[in-house]
């Protein structure tokens, strides 16, 4: 099984056999498993998720339980007719680190993976409620939540609001700070890349 082979791979070369877009994720995956969170994680359980919980473009999804109680989502997708693991979804990969974004070292990220839920917090540079839709953004990689804002006229605004009105949903988005909004843990969503963490080609 692809998911099991990925989880129990003993080397970078072995993992690369089981991931999609291997050349593109090679460096990020090497860092994740050598110096990042993956260096300290051991998979203790792999559980298939119910068909009703599947996202449309995925072949299958698994809940990965880690020693110590952490969890990750493992998505298997089709690439050139073969089942492959989406590493970026597994690692909750972002194009910039949360530390750099919150410290203001970088002002934007073209790709972050979070849970969002419709919120009602309008303050500082995002106080104009008629213009913005607020979302509470969370991640196991963050100590506390962030506030994301999407212009209400954005084509994805109504769909996101509808999806996240009850329970948190996984999304992959582009974000940027407005001025020094990162100090208040606030960011603008500039692009909705996809619902879920495994993006299409």
Report on this model:
This protein is α+β, with helices and mostly antiparallel strands and 201 residues long. The chain contains six helices and nine strands, in the order H-H-H-E-E-E-E-H-H-E-E-E-H-E-E. It has helices at residues 2-7, 12-16, 22-34, 87-91, 98-103, 157-163, and strands at 43-48, 60-66, 71-79, 82-85, 108-118, 132-138, 146-151, 169-176, 186-195. The strands form two sheets. A five-stranded mixed β-barrel has the order 5-6-7-9-8. A hairpin with a 4-residue loop joins strand 2 and strand 3. The longest helix is centred in the N-terminal third of the chain and has 13 residues, at 22-34. The radius of gyration is 17 Å and the shape is globular. The chain starts with a helix and ends in a 6-residue tail after the last strand. The mean pLDDT is 94.
């Amino acid at each position: 099984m692809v998911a099991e082979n990925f989880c129990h791979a003993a080397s970078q070369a072995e993992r690369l056999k089981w991931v999609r877009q291997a050349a593109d994720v090679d460096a990020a995956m090497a860092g994740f498993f050598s110096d990042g969170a993956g260096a300290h994680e051991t998979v203790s359980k792999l559980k298939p998720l119910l068909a009703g919980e599947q996202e449309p473009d995925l072949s299958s999804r698994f809940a990965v339980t880690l020693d110590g109680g952490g969890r990750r989502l493992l998505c298997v997708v089709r690439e050139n007719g073969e089942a492959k693991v989406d590493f970026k979804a597994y690692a909750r990969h972002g194009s910039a680190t949360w530390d750099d974004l919150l410290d203001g070292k970088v002002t934007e990220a073209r790709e972050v993976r979070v849970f969002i839920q419709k919120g009602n917090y309008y303050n500082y540079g995002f106080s104009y409620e008629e213009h913005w839709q607020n979302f509470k953004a969370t991640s196991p990689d963050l100590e506390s939540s962030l506030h994301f804002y999407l212009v209400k006229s954005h084509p994805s605004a109504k769909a996101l609001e509808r999806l996240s009105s009850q329970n948190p949903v996984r999304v992959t988005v582009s974000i940027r700070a407005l001025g020094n909004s990162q100090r208040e843990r606030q960011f603008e969503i500039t692009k909705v890349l996809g619902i879920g963490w495994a993006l299409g080609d």
